């Protein structure tokens, strides 16, 4: 018999695993489940990226061990992308890290830059995997509420000074999973000043950085003057290019933070498949790039519009998402986020993610993934309408 380590057993339970199990049980029982619970892009990767990958996979030069820290061409392409899109300048060798998905960087960061007992600030509600990083790094975390009345931005003034003084890093994620909220340049300017005042590192998770609606490209934290002095930003190919299964991302920003991420990765990984990195260069530099991204954004916006209109019609009023591919929906009186999610699955065959899985302040909401065609989204609302829960 082999026991799991204390570290492993200290890790938080993966809440999506429970959801997937419930959904699969329903499907096995023959229910036509409309699954709005998860965040997995449903459309294929743009063809120009697939074609270039095929070419690189066939090239024997990509079949060997490669450089630990990523191909110089990829780091340069990442730096150029940030310069072109956000006017931010990064040294490709010192200020860019290549990652096998941004989750890896988010999880290894406390391990690489914090000591046991240090304090990490996390948004509530927030992406559950931040908790895995805190547990692996044996750090304490404190949560900062994201409230509807502040457009789901943290109220920096309301963070107690002693908490701010203790904190070493603060994770933020806009466009936001799960609320669909976006940040403003004013907020980021205030955040840089706050970070300097309290010596807190800012970790911006820009997973949905390309997914802004109503013609508004999301603001990058790295556009803010002084951002590089206080933090980094993670950028993933998963959502921007429908490449969630490919596992490729990068981080840019403060050279001390990037250096620590690179160093811990030297110990954990050999390299990312060079063909994948070469394809990533083409994803970022091909003239078809912006049209491909635009098509992806338009599809989510169309779905958002269809879902929001249908939900409003039955009196179920969402916080209209300004980005991402989620809608953050209030739970009707008399239910918790979990009992409401269970009801929708049992009585309407609609799976949604209960908000409490994202933190205490997620209670009272469910998250809808707009990862299905508009007609099915409207059908989901029609099924929910039959439960007569809304006025
Ligand atoms: N950060 C947020 C907020 C996410 O929602 C996700 C994926 O759902 C990730 C990070 C992970 O992205 P990646 O596929 O790059 O690991």
Automatic annotation (TrEMBL):
Cofactor(s) required, per the database record: pyridoxal 5'-phosphate
Domain Aminotransferase class I/classII large: 32-384
Source domain of life: Bacteria
Protein name per its UniProtKB record: Pyridoxal phosphate-dependent aminotransferase
NCBIfam families attached to this UniProt entry: PRK08068.1
Database matches in CDD domains: AAT_like
Keyword Transferase (UniProt): yes
A molecular function (GO) term: transaminase activity
Keyword Transferase in record: yes
Keywords: Aminotransferase, Transferase
Pfam family, one: Aminotran_1_2
Family matches, as PANTHER family: AMINO ACID AMINOTRANSFERASE (PTHR42832), L-GLUTAMINE--4-(METHYLSULFANYL)-2-OXOBUTANOATE AMINOTRANSFERASE (PTHR42832:SF3)
């Amino acid at each position: 018999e082999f026991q799991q380590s204390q570290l492993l057993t200290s890790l938080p339970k993966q809440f999506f695993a429970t959801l997937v199990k419930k959904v699969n049980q329903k499907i096995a029982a023959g229910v036509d489940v409309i699954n709005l619970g998860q965040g997995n892009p449903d459309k294929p990767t743009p063809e120009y990226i697939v074609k270039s990958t095929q070419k690189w996979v066939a090239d024997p030069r990509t079949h060997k061990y490669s450089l630990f820290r990523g191909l110089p061409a990829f780091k340069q392409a990442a730096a150029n992308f940030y310069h072109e899109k956000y006017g931010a300048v990064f040294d490709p060798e010192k200020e860019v890290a290549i990652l096998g998905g941004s989750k890896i960087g988010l999880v290894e960061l406390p391990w690489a830059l914090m000591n046991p007992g240090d304090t990490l600030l996390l948004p509530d509600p927030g992406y559950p995997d931040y908790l895995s990083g805190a547990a692996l790094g044996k750090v304490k975390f404190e949560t900062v509420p994201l409230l509807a009345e502040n457009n789901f931005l943290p109220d920096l003034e309301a963070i107690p000074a002693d908490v701010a003084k203790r904190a070493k890093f603060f994770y933020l994620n806009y466009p936001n999973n799960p609320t669909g909220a976006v940040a403003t340049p004013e907020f980021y300017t205030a955040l840089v000043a706050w970070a300097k005042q309290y010596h807190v590192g800012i970790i911006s998770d820009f997973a949905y950085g390309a997914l802004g609606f109503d013609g508004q490209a999301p603001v990058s934290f790295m556009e803010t003057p002084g951002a590089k002095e206080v933090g980094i930003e993670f950028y993933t190919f998963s959502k921007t290019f429908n490449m969630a299964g490919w596992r490729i991302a990068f981080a840019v920003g403060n050279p001390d933070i990037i250096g620590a991420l690179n160093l811990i990765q030297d110990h954990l990984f050999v390299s990312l498949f060079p063909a994948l990195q070469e394809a990533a260069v083409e994803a970022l530099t091909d003239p078809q790039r912006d049209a491909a991204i635009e098509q992806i954004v338009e599809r989510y916006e169309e779905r958002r519009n269809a879902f929001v209109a249908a939900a409003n019609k039955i009196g179920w009023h969402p916080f209209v998402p300004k980005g991402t591919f989620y809608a953050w929906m209030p739970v009707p009186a008399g239910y918790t986020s979990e009992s409401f999610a269970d009801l929708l699955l049992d009585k309407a065959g609609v799976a949604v993610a209960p908000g409490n899985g994202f933190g205490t302040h997620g209670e009272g909401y469910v998250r809808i993934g707009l990862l299905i065609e508009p007609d099915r989204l409207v059908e989901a609302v029609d099924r929910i309408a039959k439960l007569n829960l809304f006025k």
